[in-house]
Amino acid sequence: MSVNEFYPRWLVATEKGEDCIIVDVRSPGEYSKGHVPSARLLPLDSLPGAAHVIARDKPVYLICQGGMRSLQAMDYLAREHGLANLVNITGGTMAWINAGYPVKQGGHDGS
After folding, report:
1. Which end of the chain is more exposed for a tag (fewer CB within 10 A), N or C?
2. pTM for the structure as a whole
3. Which residue has the higher pLDDT, 1 or 49?
4. What are the counts of helices (DSSP H) followed by strands (DSSP E) for the chain?
């Protein structure tokens, strides 16, 4: 799903106060420089020990800088943990920023 397809879903969920689960699989340094508001940091290299915290009952949107690491995360989580509710955000945070969508800086916990 492209950033432009995802943004309206995120916006509606945010306005309604609903959960929109976004997992940012970049490094903490990349995340702190700018991330989608409400995105939770879960670096790609930490997935093997932390996959259990990812929701199984709702869509989970995976994002990275350009779309490749989030695609790797999606493949890993589907193959190794049986998750089927995963959506890769193509273009990643770079496309999100270039589109002029809101960005939050700092933090490592999505807050």
Report:
1. C
2. 0.88
3. 49
4. 5, 4
